């Protein structure tokens, strides 16, 4: 499909070049947190099976369980926010994308996942030391050692994964950062979606009872039945990525049909260029300047 092969320029301007990699990492953190919770539950069962006093190590493992549950909740929250952003309409996607694509947002994620894994590793080491003070079995020691080793492994993996993502983010911001023109284009494109100049519709609703499948005249690819397409006021439909790329370069329909433009855009386009405005201001100042005052030697009131 063209919609998947064509890179949305809006995503490129916002710096979402590693988008599929980000989703895989979020899924990894969900699986990691779920695995860690399962391992802690197994260790709780083995620790309380024959140790005295009863319930001691279960209480010691309550903190790791809470930390691992918080990691799982944060991973699910990030994944849900990402999928919710992708399923929203264009204007909402731009707004949510801007909230997710901030350095502080991902820096907090890096710090939280890494610090929590370090905390779990230290706590499991404390539990292992306490087990040597009581009666224990080799299976119980092996379970706690596996927990401690898994926490250390997760620390290293978290740092490797998120360090690469933050480094890619920093290179993206330095090399292809948004300037004023890009921000202005994104603002106008968002206003066009909000004011319903560009509407998101299902391809099956646009096609109706037509026997011939509709296609995008920009990339010449046919629309999928369940695919979201962008429709202009003139009725022409295009892939969202295709029309976004077109509109960012030319504020007209590809068929040169009249296209409604938000009022703020019209006012901005009506502004004269900076050099022309400066020339107009100088000419107006010269025309409005008063005549030169008479010389001291010139006659006054017609008298010599």
UniProtKB/TrEMBL annotation:
Gene Ontology molecular function, alphabetical: ubiquitin protein ligase activity; zinc ion binding
Pfam families, A to Z: zf-RING_2
Keyword Cytoplasm: no
Superkingdom of the source species: Eukaryota
InterPro entries recorded: MBR1/2-like, Znf_RING, Znf_RING/FYVE/PHD
Gene3D superfamilies: Zinc/RING finger domain, C3HC4 (zinc finger)
Enzyme Commission number, as recorded: 2.3.2.27
Top-level EC class as recorded in UniProt: transferase
Keyword RNA-binding: no
Compositionally biased region (Low complexity): 285-297
Keywords: Membrane, Metal-binding, Transferase, Transmembrane, Transmembrane helix, Ubl conjugation pathway, Zinc, Zinc-finger
Annotated ranges, domain RING-type: 216-254
Sequence intervals crossing the membrane: 56-83, 104-130, 142-162
Chain segments carrying region Disordered: 267-304
Catalytic activity entry: S-ubiquitinyl-[E2 ubiquitin-conjugating enzyme]-L-cysteine + [acceptor protein]-L-lysine = [E2 ubiquitin-conjugating enzyme]-L-cysteine + N(6)-ubiquitinyl-[acceptor protein]-L-lysine
Full protein name: RING-type E3 ubiquitin transferase
